[in-house]
Amino acid sequence: MQAIADLVEHYGWKEVTSIFVDDDYGRSGIIFLGDALAKKRSKISFKAAFIPSAPSSAIRDLLVQVNLMESRVYVVHVNPDSGLTVFSVAKELGMLNNGSVWIATDWLMAVLDSLKMSDPVQKISHKGLLHFVITLQTQILKIILSRWSKLKASSSLNSYGLYAYDSVCSTGVKGFCIDVFEAAVKLLQYEVNHIYLLYGDGSKTPNFSDLVEMVPENKYDAVVGDITIVTNRTKIVDFIQTFIGSGLVVVSPVKGINSSAWSFLKPFSVQMWCVTGAFFLLVGAAVWILEHRINPEFCGPPSQYL
């Protein structure tokens, strides 16, 4: 998103329209983009969001609304499964003509990687999208691609794969959980010699339940990571106290309370007090009608009942 903000600043655009998928991935990216643009004295003038797996009709209705906005610089931050649909509908609506700028985020590279054809650029161009790809040929990149090819992976290594590879292999084992573990080890009064062993083959997401079961099997001494604490796992291993909060909070306005002699009336509304008073009079009248003929306490003038 910082690169997009730099691009907006370079061309002197002051306002952009963001088109994004309404989930954690989309919202967080647009928030970061808004902060980056604010530092460049630009802003997001209109935010157009659609739900994940939205049909083409919903995307069309959204783009019709977007087309009414003044800004003609669009940033598309969506999932790969809906990205091409956005551009296809935009082309049908004539929104890809001269005078408009469309900027796609990293999802486009994932789409290019997944297209099973000799010329994926041609398929993208059919959607009306003109794009360019900058390829950096460095010695480190060549080494990474060579290692990736040895895994016999079915797809090429896109930008997401490079990020993951760089965070695990190139820079060593790092992360928030690792930092917490290292800080805890330093607080011990004795030395704990340990080495990190990466779990998984690097091509698919490992099964964390299987990983936890390897601890009582003495294949590993411990597991460091964001492992979810569930009942069946607590029966075979011990977890430390939770140190990562859920991040959920409740925000409510602060209102000053003025104390008065009529404060006891606030728990109920005016309508509720009226209904309560009506029932009080109705019950009192019914008791008097039934009792005043036979009960001496209900005889005499009405002032006697008070």
Write up what this structure looks like.
This protein is of the alpha/beta class. It has twelve helices and four strands, in the order H-E-H-E-H-E-H-E-H-H-H-H-H-H-H-H. The chain folds into four domains: 2-134, Rossmann fold, CATH 3.40.50; 135-172, no CATH class; 174-250, no CATH class; 265-305, no CATH class. The protein has helices spanning 2-11, 24-39, 56-67, 80-92, 107-114, 120-126, 139-150, 159-170, 176-186, 208-213, 231-234, 270-291, and strands spanning 15-21, 43-50, 73-77, 101-104. A four-stranded parallel sheet has the order 2-1-3-4, sandwiched between helices. Helix 1 packs across helix 2, helix 3 (56-67) packs across helix 4 and helix 4 (80-92) packs across helix 5. It is flat, with a radius of gyration of 33 Å. The N and C termini lie far apart (78 Å). Residues 117-128 and 130-134 have low confidence and may be disordered.
List the helices and strands and how they pair.
Layout: H1 2-11, E1 15-21, H2 24-39, E2 43-50, H3 56-67, E3 73-77, H4 80-92, E4 101-104, H5 107-114, H6 120-126, H7 139-150, H8 159-170, H9 176-186, H10 208-213, H11 231-234, H12 270-291
Parallel strand pairs: 1-2, 1-3, 3-4
